[in-house]
Amino acid sequence: MNILESLSMAGKTLATNRLRSGLTMLGIIIGNASVIIMVGVGEGAKKYASQQFQTLGTDVIFIIPGSDNARRNAISPPNRLVLADADAIASQVPTVREVAPQISSSELIVSVQSTERATLIGTVPEYQTVRNAPTCLGRFFAKDDLKRNARVVTIGAEMVKKLFKSYYPEPKDSKEKVDACKPVGGSPIGQQVRIRGASYEIIGIMDAKGASLGTNQDDTLFMPFTTIVGNIVGRTSPYGIAVTVINVSAKSNDAVDAAEFQITNLLKQRHKSLDAKAEETFTIRSQKDALEIVGNITGALTIMLAAIASISLLVGGIGIMNIMLVSVTERTQEIGLRKAIGASQSDILVQFIIEAVILSVAGGLFGTAIGVGGILLVAAFTPLQAGVSGGAIMLAVGVSGAIGLFFGVVPAQQAAKLDPIVALRSI
To answer: How does this chain sit within the bilayer (predicted)?
Structure first.
């Protein structure tokens, strides 16, 4: 008997027992759909995290005070990262494009409509470029505002809605989102807020950015660096004007590693005269490093999810083996009759293996269709851009076929070894 005859006979046998064949495929269908959806969700999470970091710029470098060990200590040394360090980086590191020192402080913000606690960031105009933080209404403060210690602030997209609720009424449709850049019945631009008893004019509203690195930029207010030093925090370091972080953008993504190396050497030289362990006075992190860490984490989670879902494929394969063993018992007379009229052991073996492979491949195809449909639903109703490559689909179907082949061998061998005389006696 050739392969085509075996395929035809296997197809007719499975079609005759549609319900049993469908139930046998169910485990493979669920397993394939689970694997494809889990891999798709994992890839979508990876893309989403990457996009969130991309909006902040992959060429950004953060310099923060103290080492990791120093920050774990209960008693930490005074802040040695100062404004002069930022100026030195801007003037002496050739791979750096722009530098934006910042001071952060948690303050109560009072408007005529509400009082909220927010993160107040004092920085320079270059912050917009370094951190990719545009305004959607009004403007960011300029160098002239720095020179005259202007009492102006640019406000985050979420904070402005909290402080001026009357300008942002809830939409009738709950699915619609309130746009901070489209106030209704008035504009926050030109309004005053009070911080520590002093009034500040709102000159701009920031584009919505969301949370990143533990900070929600939309719940933040920005003011000129000189203003926050003169009116809010004062001079807190004996070494100069202490800064919370120095934001640096490299000239290109390829220059990030070189910029980190040059900045490290420069700061070690600047701090060495005061402290032999100069490297413990600062830590350098980059968006590139964070992106790689997030990519590794999401990749590991994707593998874990796929591995968990693959258990369903294993269970489906065991189900195929069980049903095929039952089928061998039920078809003893058929096997005996075929052997009596000349069918060889290999013919019986091939037919049962083909039946198992057909069940697993068909289940794989149905499961793939369901999995792709599930991914489309995830992409439509969540921010995840879920998707699976054709290679992943081919791999899933191939694994299904291999499982059918593997688990179909034992029943096929049992059927092939039946003694035709013993089988015919049961007629």
So the answer is: Multi-pass membrane protein
Q: Give the CA-trace dihedral at 82, 222, 132, 71, to 10 degrees.
A: 40
Q: Count CB atoms within 10 A of the CB of residue 196.
A: 12
**Which span out of 23-27, 154-158, 276-280, 338-342 was modeled with the highest average pLDDT?**
154-158
Q: Rounded to whole angstroms, what are the CA distances from 375 to 295, 308, 370?
A: 20, 18, 9
Would you say the pTM of this structure is higher than 0.90?
A: no
Q: Smallest Cα–Cα separation from 10: which of 415, 422, 421, 424?
A: 415
Residue 66 — φ and ψ, nearest 5°?
80, 160
Residue 149 φ/ψ region, left for φ over 0, alpha for ψ in the -120 to 50 degree band, beta for the rest: left
Residue 313: CB partners within 8 Å, gap ≥ 6?
27, 28, 31, 32, 35, 399, 400, 403
Cα angle: 410, vertex 321, 302; to 5 degrees: 115
With 0-12 CB in 10 A as exposed, 13-18 as middle and 19+ as buried, what is 386?
A: buried
- Round to whole Å and give the CA distance between 278 and 67: 10
Using the structure block, give the residue that is written with the tokens 């992943």.
392
Coil, strand or helix: which one is 200? strand
Query: How much is the average pLDDT of 307-322?
Result: 75
Highest average pLDDT, of 147-156, 163-172, 331-340, comes from 147-156
Evaluate whether 131 touches 57 at the Cβ level (below 8 Å): yes
Distance CA 239, CA 80 (A): 6
In sequence order, the 6+-apart residues with CB closer than 8 A to the CB of 72 are none
Q: Are 263 and 285 in contact (CB under 8 A)?
A: no
Nearest to 377, CA basis, from 389, 386, 368: 386
Res 74 pLDDT > 50:
no
Whether the Cβ atoms of residue 105 and residue 120 lie closer than 8 Å to each other: yes
CB 236 within 8 A of CB 79: yes
